[in-house]
Amino acid sequence: MSKFNHVLENKVMPVAARIAGQRHLQALRDGLILTMPLIIVGSIFLILGFLPIPGYAEFMARTFGEAWLTKLLYPVGATFDIMALIAGFGIAYRLAEKYGVDALSAGAISVAAFLLATPYQVSFLAEGATEEVLVGGAIPAALMGSKGLFVAMIIAMLSTEIYRYIIQKKIVIRMPEGVPPAVSRSFVALIPGAIVITVIWLLRLLVEQTDFESLHNIVAIILGKPLGALGGSLIGSLVAVFLIQLLWSCGLHGASIVGGVMGPIWLASMDANRIAFQGGAEELPNIFTQQFFDIFIYIGGSGATLALVITMLLFARSQQMKQLGRLAVGPGLFNINEPITFGMPIVMNPLLIVPFILAPLAITVITYIAMSTGFVARPSGIAVPWTMPPIIGGYLAAGSKFSGAILQFVNFIVAFLIYYPFFRMWDKQKLAEEQGAAK
After folding, report:
1. What is the pLDDT of residues 181-200, one digit of tens each?
2. Is residue 71 part of a domain?
3. Which of 91, 242, 258, 378 has its CA 20 to 30 A from that of 289?
4. In whole angstroms, what is the distance from residue 79 CA to residue 48 CA?
């Protein structure tokens, strides 16, 4: 046990701490979080459009007309289909904050650079002209959503790095004192913004001369496909889950650290499922989405610890575990498990780290088999909040199908069976300590 703790403290924890403190990963994580409120709002309308109530569609058609569903889903397009745009602004904003430069200007420049990197054009025949002229035109909605997410991330970080470098080198226009701060900041951003736009413009012109044709195609082929294959496979997902649990075992927020890398992949898969679900597809394309992990795997929080809390409530003999179980059950129902992780503790506890890692891995395999064989509906793309209580969350995430709720219950039982023997050993140890202290 002491050797295991030594490895965690001296080998794993220093590396994990450096990764957790990396400013680009932090900006990536915090910027993506900016999209979540909008996606959740859009998901509410998506749920309302496909309520599994007999006669619901007919009632809505009689009340609001045959086009009721199209009109009801307007907010879905207005939220999901600007995911990349919002993420690009948020990532640049958070990264600029960490460098101590004007974050609002950095976010605005990032959005402009992203639009410049996105191929959109229309043609028109000018009066008196003999041939059509190409000009900027309609922005492709698909590239503003999940399909453009990787490009938005890269552009946000690249543009902010150029922006802060120029600022820190003081290659800026300074206004005299007395000028309002907002006006002064705008002029400070003028030269860095011009340089960023010029760089992205030249990149676009260069790429258009190649077979890739656009920056979006380069990212999709070179980066998107390999990462998508990793995040969309059982092996890749098991590795991600293992790393999340291992980092938590060291006291670091594993979901945030790993999510900074895998989150964009899972969000893109979620949106692909949403589009297919919205179009009435019988089989959705992806199993591994953000909801796969948030709803079906982490029941009670990272480590699926709600099962451990219930074990404490039912079988604890030591007063410490009984009291902790009572305190943790409320937060645990909403997938908040810090009282257990740090209060039991699980962190740096070799005995409890074993089921803490093993339970999510087992549940991941079970959930994958259930969904790949068709016994359980795949995540529908509805962005169910990670705080949604069990059973309800599974039902909604599966597109209002009871198979999702049943799978959540099965996963809970599996986690319960894994945690039980380890908890009994821990509880016995705590009971002996209490009895020894009483004597």
Report:
1. 777 777 888 899 999 999 99
2. no
3. 91
4. 15
